[in-house]
Amino acid sequence: MKFRYLGNSGMKISETIYGNWLTHGSQVENDAAKACVRAALDAGISSFDTADVYANTAAETVLGEALAGERRESLEIFTKVYWPTGPKGHNDVGLSRKHIMESINGSLTRLKTDYVDLYQAHRWDAETPLEETMQAFADVVRAGKAHYIGVSEWTAGQIRAGHALAKDLGIQLVSSQPQYSMLWRVIESEVVPTCEELGVSQIVWSPVAQGVLTGKYLPGQPAPEGSRATDEKGGANMISRFMNDDVLTRVQNLKPIADDLGITMAQLAVAWVLANPNVAGAIIGASRPEQVVDNAKAVDVTLDADVLAAIDAALGDVVQSDADLTAKNAPATRPV
User: Any catalytic annotation for residue 217?
Assistant: First the structure.
């Protein structure tokens, strides 16, 4: 495993990060989930990403149990707050002081730890003053419950505003967690340059486009049984934007590129996001331990300029690069 600094902080994280969205407590049975965590640890992965909303808090519980007994100081554990949890009452959502303070305590209990290394705003909260949110995050850091603060799916302007307030409050906003892959490049024109200026890293989710970039989904054919595209618990909805024949046909053009390099298409996809110097780590999910092992090997892959150009040519106009999609996909109001 290789490691990179997270933003302008002194903390390093593993280049591949194990994430349990759509798997732990939901898509994958607990024994299989724990086997995937063990495979991640054996592969040298030290960074683990989760959120309170995943499986309505169950994913945090499974991860906490899977990591029990490990040396805490050797791990970097990330979690997030924003989406509705628990009974999903009127204050069980958002980035208010009340919800942040209650949520961090719940997350720490479920994760069986006294602190998280990174606490992230899972989305922008249009209904809470940013000053209230950042003051609450500052108090969480000062209480020793989190070392650093991050955000997820914020626009460049929102990141800039949050970073300025964090600096005024004496805390470090060091990361942005956006969707990023060969197919989804909406952060490149605005978010990445802003973050490079501010000393903020990307820790990206869905580098394999929810499995589409593995090449297992073929144009004109039904999705394989048991795949994410058939998962009605949430996976099928998230992957739907890529499930059309134009995209799937273009993805098949990547196979010769991967074959020439002697790597899998998944490794090619993860190596591609890691080629961006503003990316500190790529979050990989898995339903089987061998997937973890396969994806983690991407840290040893270097893609030269000719390969990157060949990837662009293979995908052509199915790549999505519209920077406005970050804001358009954000909730305009709280979900409840």
Answer: no
Closest CA to 320 of 204, 242, 235: 242
- Strand locations in the chain, DSSP E? 3-5, 12-14, 16-19, 47-49, 76-81, 116-121, 146-151, 173-176, 201-204, 279-284
The pTM (predicted TM-score) of the whole model is 0.94
Q: What percent of the chain has pLDDT over 90?
A: 86
* CATH number of the domain that residue 131 is part of: 3.20.20.100
Q: Residue 271 above 90 pLDDT? A: yes
Number of domains comprising the chain: 1
* Residue 334 in domain: no
Q: Which helix (H) or strand (E) holds 51?
A: none
Could you tell me if residue 336 is inside a domain?
A: no
Q: Which of 5, 18, 54, 82 is catalytic?
A: 54
Tokens of 129: 């003053």
- pLDDT surpassing 60 at residue 234: no
